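Ops channel
N.P.: pipeline sanity check, posting one input/output pair.
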């Protein structure tokens, strides 16, 4: 049994999912969510308008974290995160003073664009049948009696 360090296991886990897109989206949600939770004087003047900000921020945080544990939802989460970040521009203090909106659009794009790695042929960990297929193809090319 091969023992690996926690750092190596984390790196392998991180590369198998849209980690950076989820992290940026969660940071954008935290930015959008935190601004309406200002001191009481600011909240009294803002009133009910702070509720959509908190809700949009929480949804962005949930979407960002959910792609870490369910990477197959990356397309839906990326599109919804980008749409919420764009809506936050209008509904929530200019989207967290533009920082939350820009981070949300970036995080949604990173989630949407992420693709799982496909193992290369002949690389360690690939199925044995692909190696045998490659060997048989090489033998067929080198055999002068084979008919193409």
């Amino acid at each position: 049994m091969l023992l690996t360090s926690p750092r190596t296991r984390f790196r392998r886990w991180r590369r198998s999912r849209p980690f950076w897109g989820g992290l940026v989206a969660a940071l954008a949600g935290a930015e959008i969510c935190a601004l309406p939770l200002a001191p009481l004087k600011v909240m009294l003047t803002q009133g009910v308008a702070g509720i959509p900000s908190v809700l949009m921020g929480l949804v962005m945080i949930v979407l960002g974290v959910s792609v870490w544990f369910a990477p197959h939802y990356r397309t839906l989460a990326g599109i919804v995160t980008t749409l919420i970040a764009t809506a936050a521009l209008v509904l929530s203090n200019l989207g967290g003073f533009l920082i939350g909106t820009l981070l949300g659009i970036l995080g949604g794009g990173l989630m949407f664009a992420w693709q799982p790695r496909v193992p290369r042929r002949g690389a360690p960990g690939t199925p044995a049948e692909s190696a045998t297929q490659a060997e048989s193809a090489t033998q067929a090319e080198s055999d002068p009696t084979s008919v193409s």
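N.P.: looks fine end to end. Helices lie at 6-15, 19-34, 40-46, 50-69, 74-91, 93-97, 99-113, 128-142.
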